[in-house]
Design brief:
Blueprint (H helix, E strand, L loop, with lengths): L4 E3 L2 E3 L12 E3 L2 E3 L12 E3 L2 E3 L12 E3 L1 E4 L18 E4 L17 E3 L17 E3 L57
Parallel strand pairs: 1-3, 2-4, 3-5, 4-6, 5-7, 6-8, 8-9, 9-10, 10-11
């Protein structure tokens, strides 16, 4: 059980590869320019925390609790967000590199992805109701049996998914991005 509580602390330029982050709960904390590359954050709780300019590549997230966590200008390659605890899970991403990350089966209602690289991210069976993909690259992202109702793809690009196996009621798209919904038909569209 997490017993250590750390509140309102700012962590600057720390490499958590060498100095492991202590197990416990971090509330209203900020991590600036920290290196978490390949770190094990298992069983840690983050509440209302912000990660700025951090390298979180291949971080282990087993049983991590992320409640209202913001990632700004972070490198988040290959993260298995599906290993996080789902209870009160709330995330926000801006200017982040999330290539090859996994959000399989997560409830991510109203999650905001702004100016993010989401290439080859797995959103299979996730609930992204009301999510916003503002100016995001979704090249080869996987959407399979995903709830995308009321999601906003108007400024997203490079997405392709099958509207027959995903829920897209009241989702928002723009031209020419909407052509990604027709990719499975192998047709030519001219403007």
């Amino acid at each position: 059980m997490n017993t250590q509580l750390t509140e309102k602390k700012v962590f600057e330029k720390i490499s958590f590869r060498e100095n492991l982050l202590a197990k416990g709960t971090y509330e209203d904390c900020t991590f600036n320019n920290c290196n978490f590359n390949s770190a094990d954050l298992s069983s840690i709780t983050f509440r209302t925390c912000t990660f700025n300019n951090c390298d979180c590549t291949l971080v282990t997230l087993k049983d991590v609790s992320m409640q209202d966590v913001k990632f700004l200008n972070c490198k988040l390659l290959g993260l298995q967000f599906n290993q996080c605890k789902e209870f009160l899970l709330r995330l926000d991403f801006e200017n982040c590199m999330l290539k090859l990350s996994v959000f399989y089966r997560l409830k991510l209602k109203k999650t905001r992805f702004k100016n993010c690289n989401l290439e080859e991210v797995d959103f299979s069976e996730a609930n992204l109701t009301g999510a916003a993909f503002e100016n995001c690259d979704l090249l080869q992202a996987t959407f399979m049996h995903t709830n995308l109702e009321k999601a906003d793809f108007r400024s997203a690009f490079n997405y392709t998914f099958d509207p027959e196996i995903n829920r897209i009621r009241n989702a928002r798209f723009s031209i020419p991005g909407v052509t990604g919904l027709l990719a499975k038909y192998d047709i030519e569209i001219e403007w």
